[in-house]
Amino acid sequence: MYTEHKWTSVEKILFVVNVIPVGKVLPYGKVADLAGLPGRARYVSRALKLAPIEANLPWHRVINSAGKISFPPNSDLFQKQTELLRLEDIEVNQGNISLSKYLWQPDIATLVMTLPF
Question: In what residue span(s) does the Methylated-DNA-[protein]-cysteine S-methyltransferase DNA binding domain sit (predicted)?
Answer without folding.
Answer: 11-89
